[in-house]
Amino acid sequence: MRCPFCGHAESQVKDSRPSEDAAAIRRRRLCPECGGRFTTFERVQLRELTIVKRSGRRTPFDRDKLARSVMVGLRKRPVDPERIEQMISSIVRQLESTGETELPSSVIGELVMKHLKQLDDVAYVRYASVYRNFRETQDFAKFLGEEGLNEAATEDGRS
Predict the structure, then answer these.
(1) Measured distance between the N- and C-terminal CA atoms of the chain, rounded to whole angstroms
(2) Which of 15, 109, 114, 158 registers the highest number of CB atoms within 10 A of its CB?
(3) Residue 147 counted as domain residue
(4) CA 102 to chain centre
């Protein structure tokens, strides 16, 4: 593993253990060149996923990009980082378990919204505002009104 500090091509593993959700192996590493210490995570990848954008362009799935987009909604929210990591791992597992190798970007967006709604309402609305491209305050009001109707219908047993 290349050192992120000096770029040296080798590093030594000092400690390995499962992550909190047991979905990855956490490795503490030491660079023999500069002495820098860093952590890496090793995860199982079931299959290579390709994301089909709205424009039709295809890009490889990037877990880090997913995490960054989730963090936009969660910025300055009181959510435990471990819960965020568990949510991201759950989304990735759901995507990999679809059996498809190409997925439309809308599938990811909807999954993120579903998980954020369970995690934090403010983050959910923030993410939805970017994902659904809200331009005016009426867009927020309409979205929140639809969500209220959907929740009321679910509570009444109508769906």
Answers:
(1) 50
(2) 109
(3) no
(4) 18
C-alpha pair distances (Å), 81 with each of 5, 15, 17, 119, 131:
24, 22, 18, 12, 22
DSSP conformation letters of 3-44: -TTT--S--EEEEEEE-TTSSEEEEEEE-TTT--EEEEEEE-
C-alpha closest to that of 30 among 18, 16, 41, 14: 14
pTM of the model: 0.61
For residues 50 and 108, membership in a common domain is answered with yes
- Tokens representing 116 are 């954020």
- Asked whether 43 and 18 are in contact (CB, 8 A), the reply is no
3-state helix, strand and coil shares in percent for the chain, rounded to the nearest 5: 45, 20, 35
Range of the domain at 30: 1-44
Token representation of residue 75:
């910025």
Q: For residue range 76-88, what is the model confidence (pLDDT) as tens digits?
A: 888 888 889 889 9
Phi, psi of 102 (to 5 degrees): -120, 125
